[in-house]
Design a protein that fits this description.
Elements lengths: L3 H28 L6 H8 L3 H4 L6 H12 L2 H10 L5 H16 L2 H16 L1 H28 L8 H21 L8 H16 L2 H11 L1
Helix pairs in contact: 1-2, 1-4, 1-7, 4-8, 5-6, 5-8, 6-10, 7-8, 8-9, 9-10
Length: about 220
């Protein structure tokens, strides 16, 4: 019994931390970073305001944790590591699946619609987005592209440039169709799949492109 208590307490602490983060996410989506107070987050989580400070030093640290948890950076890092030897079409197709899921999640789209404009206006918020969500994802993709270049499957292109072009291609479609609500000629899944074909046409070496075309057919 005695050995189980520390484990239980650790689990309870993690559950409380997650509860606070989920409550913070909902309040940030409704009111933005600047308009949110820790007291409102505590009310949303059903806890006392002081309990938040056992887990997070301040609102900015809590916001950073929420951005990390909700961003695509961590899944991208895991995928890039696990699929380092996978062919480009297979790896990039998985990113398309991730982007499609993101674009179809109403809570995530609501968060992006509210918080991205705030990131443009608020330097603190912008810094959190860039350092906690955008750059880690770009580095993960760039690392994968560099490994594929070493195999001769991708043409000589700065991996950092290749990563930014790829992520930008996907996010631009989500921005146009979901955030700006521009009438789309196709579903988001179709748009991102076509984006994949355009990107592969530009980055694959001739031999790799022929091989990828054979597999896709």
């Amino acid at each position: 019994m005695g050995k189980g208590r520390p484990i239980l307490r650790k689990q309870q602490r993690e559950e409380t931390r997650q509860r606070i983060m989920e409550a913070a996410f909902r309040v940030f989506v409704r009111k933005g970073f600047k308009g949110t107070s820790n007291r409102e987050i505590a009310r949303e989580a059903g806890i006392s305001p002081g309990l938040i400070y056992w887990y997070f030093r301040n609102k900015e640290e809590l916001f950073q944790a929420v951005v990390e948890a909700k961003s695509f950076a961590f899944p991208l890092q895991q995928m890039a590591q696990a699929m380092r030897d996978a062919p480009p079409r297979e790896f990039l197709s998985r990113i398309v699946e991730l982007g499609t899921a993101l674009a179809q999640d109403p809570a995530m789209i609501a968060a992006m619609r509210l918080l991205l404009p705030e990131a443009i206006r608020n330097e603190r918020v912008r810094r959190v987005f860039v350092t906690r969500a955008i750059r880690p994802g770009l580095r993960a993709v760039a690392g994968y592209l560099a490994a594929q270049q070493a195999k001769g499957l991708l043409r000589p292109l700065d991996p950092a440039i290749g990563a930014q072009l790829w992520i930008g291609l996907l996010l631009s479609q989500i921005l146009l169709s979901r955030l700006l609500r521009i009438r789309s000629p196709a579903s988001i899944a179709r748009l991102l799949t076509e984006a994949l074909e355009v990107y592969l046409h530009g980055v694959l070496t001739p031999g790799a492109a022929e091989s990828a075309g054979d597999r896709s057919g």
